[in-house]
């Protein structure tokens, strides 16, 4: 009996000791992660000089011991982003994104048609309307593998689908629908739309002083940022860089969706139709943190090919609550696009 009691006490001590070691290990992991997160933000965040980092660090360090493990501690990311007004930053860990608490569009800002289509998680589409007009739905493109090879594997099929219709129909013009493009990675989007943009500077990043940091160029199917080739598609046939194009936007069009719209600013024979965009026109870069997590951090502003910045992209023609995704020819935005395309002037 005494032997059993000693064994029980020993096992109890071992379990408690292991739990203590685990808690210590978790807290160490949490500390390492947040030290890295603060380091990245203090060096690279666009508005870093407006943030009282010592005050924020004190608050976060005080809060962290409440979390029993690393994953639960990621709730504290929102505290940092809220304090820093980092409304376009996010941390991603194991397919979960952590952001701040900022107001955004709600269901009442959208039509029932849009909400119904959005629930289906729309994918890329390209088709012909009324045997006369090309229609492209370019949705968000979320990807964790930013390699040139993976980007190419996403962009090339989109380009090929557009190219197939380009070669098989005599179309009067094209409609590029960005109403479901809430963001992600703009590189495959713009490579997929290469024929419409041609070999040009297509957008730029600028700093706080609105000075150009770098220009982004398309050249013979290659996407080039500064002097670095990011990815590519294999182009075929004639360009469509002088074809009439209507770009459709709404309040959901954000981040990389807005960059895609910006790339058409300054393009001839182009019109913007719909609603103003979401207003996430800041440039983000990806930085590794710890334990496989990474941050998408705001480091500059998005600008058009001339270096002009827009807080939001305002359409040339405003159309509100006239969506019809069951029959696009009854969609008010599409109808206005067709008017533009068929206008002889």
Q: pLDDT under 50 segments (min length 5)?
A: 1-23
C-alpha geometry: globular
* Total of domains: 2
Helix fraction bin? 25-40%
Write down the CATH class of the largest domain.
Alpha Beta
Describe the main β-sheet briefly.
8 strands, antiparallel
Query: Number of helical runs?
Result: 10
Radius of gyration (CA) equals 25 Å
Number of distinct beta strands: 14
Protein name: S41 family peptidase
Enzyme class: hydrolase
Domain Tail specific protease: 112-320
Keywords: Hydrolase
List keywords for this structure.
345 residues; alpha/beta; 2-enoyl-CoA Hydratase, Chain A, domain 1; 2 domains; eight-stranded antiparallel beta sheet; six-stranded mixed beta sheet
What would your notes on this structure say?
- Helices cover 36% and strands 22% of the residues.
- The chain is α/β, with parallel strands linked by helices.
- The protein has 2 domains: 97 residues; 202 residues, 2-enoyl-CoA Hydratase, Chain A, domain 1.
- The strands form 2 sheets. Strands 1, 2, 6, 7, 8, 9, 12 and 13 form an 8-stranded antiparallel β-sheet that branches.
- The longest helix has 43 residues.
- The radius of gyration is 25 Å and the shape is globular.
- The N terminus is likely disordered.
């Amino acid at each position: 009996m005494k032997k059993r009691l000693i064994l029980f006490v020993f096992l109890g001590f071992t379990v408690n000791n292991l739990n203590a070691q685990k808690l210590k290990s978790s807290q160490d992991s949490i500390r390492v992660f947040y030290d890295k997160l603060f380091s990245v933000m203090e060096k690279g965040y666009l508005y870093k000089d407006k943030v009282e980092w010592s005050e924020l660090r004190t608050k976060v360090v005080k809060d962290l011991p409440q979390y029993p493990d690393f994953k639960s501690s990621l709730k504290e990311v929102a505290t940092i982003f809220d304090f820093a007004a980092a409304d376009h930053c996010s941390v991603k860990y194991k397919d979960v994104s952590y952001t701040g608490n900022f107001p955004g569009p709600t269901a009442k800002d959208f039509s029932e048609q849009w909400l119904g289509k959005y629930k289906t998680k729309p994918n890329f589409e390209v088709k012909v309307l009324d045997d006369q007009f090309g229609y492209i739905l370019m949705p968000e493109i979320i990807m964790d593998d930013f390699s040139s090879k993976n980007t190419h594997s996403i962009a090339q099929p989109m380009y090929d689908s557009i190219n197939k219709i380009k070669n098989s129909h005599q179309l009067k013009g094209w409609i590029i629908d960005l109403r479901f493009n809430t963001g992600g990675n703009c590189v495959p989007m713009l490579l997929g739309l290469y024929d419409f943009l041609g070999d040009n500077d297509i957008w730029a990043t600028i700093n706080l002083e609105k000075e150009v940091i770098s220009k982004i160029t398309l050249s013979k199917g290659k996407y080039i940022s500064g002097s670095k080739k990011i990815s590519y598609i294999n182009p075929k046939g004639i360009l469509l860089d002088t074809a009439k194009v209507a770009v459709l936007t709404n309040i959901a069009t954000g981040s990389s969706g807005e960059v895609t719209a910006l790339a058409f600013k300054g393009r001839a024979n182009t019109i913007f139709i719909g609603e103003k965009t979401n207003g996430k026109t800041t440039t983000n870069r990806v930085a590794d943190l710890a334990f496989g997590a990474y941050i998408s951090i705001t480091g500059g502003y998005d600008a058009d090919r001339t270096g002009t910045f827009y807080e939001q992209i305002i359409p040339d023609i405003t159309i509100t609550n006239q969506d019809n995704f069951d029959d696009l020819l009854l969609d008010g935005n599409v109808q206005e696009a067709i008017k533009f395309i068929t206008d002889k002037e």
